[in-house]
């Protein structure tokens, strides 16, 4: 049994201690916006926030968390898609296939929370998620738009 604080709700889940947080979110809590991509914390499709920090949930066992740590999934980022990153994604039509986008959005949102006006280089250094479609230029533009730094030198 584990007790987790997910999207503002403290929830008890019955799982083995070594179960990755990703599978608890998807299978136990039915929060399927967080995606499985690689299973080794490389691609970032599974990115959630843990106390505001972008965290890859596929390689983190549920035993690493307690009810005092605030876990936020893409479903908890904004109830009406009004987060500036989500609005920028819509305005610029950032995703192509969209599979990686919930993780990209979560990584970008964590970056902007920590660094509200990041340089291009900071964005490239901090948002390391993989996009098979190669929409990196649109991701960069979306983050810059949300930060109000479109066209800023890196």
From TrEMBL:
GO terms for molecular function: 2 iron, 2 sulfur cluster binding; metal ion binding; oxidoreductase activity. The keyword Iron-sulfur applies. Pfam families: Fer2 (PF00111), Fer2_2 (PF01799). Keywords: 2Fe-2S, Iron, Iron-sulfur, Metal-binding, Oxidoreductase. It comes from the Bacteria. Residues 1-77 form the 2Fe-2S ferredoxin-type domain. PANTHER family: BLR6218 PROTEIN, OXIDOREDUCTASE WITH IRON-SULFUR SUBUNIT. This is Isoquinoline 1-oxidoreductase, alpha subunit. The lineage of its organism: Bacteria, Pseudomonadati, Pseudomonadota, Alphaproteobacteria, Acetobacterales.
């Amino acid at each position: 049994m584990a007790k987790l604080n997910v999207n503002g709700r403290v929830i008890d889940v019955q799982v083995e201690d070594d179960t990755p947080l990703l599978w608890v979110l998807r299978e136990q809590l039915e929060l399927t916006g967080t995606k499985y991509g690689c299973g080794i914390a490389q691609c970032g499709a599974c990115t959630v926030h843990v106390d505001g920090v972008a965290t890859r949930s596929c390689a983190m066992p549920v035993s690493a968390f307690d009810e005092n740590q605030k876990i936020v999934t893409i479903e908890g980022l904004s109830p009406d898609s009004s987060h500036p990153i989500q609005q920028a994604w819509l305005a610029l039509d950032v995703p192509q296939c969209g599979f990686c986008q919930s993780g990209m959005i979560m990584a970008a949102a964590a970056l902007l929370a920590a660094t509200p006006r990041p340089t291009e280089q900071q964005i490239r250094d901090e948002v390391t998620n993989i996009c098979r479609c190669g929409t990196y230029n649109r991701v960069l533009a979306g983050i810059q738009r949300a930060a109000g730094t479109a066209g800023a030198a890196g």
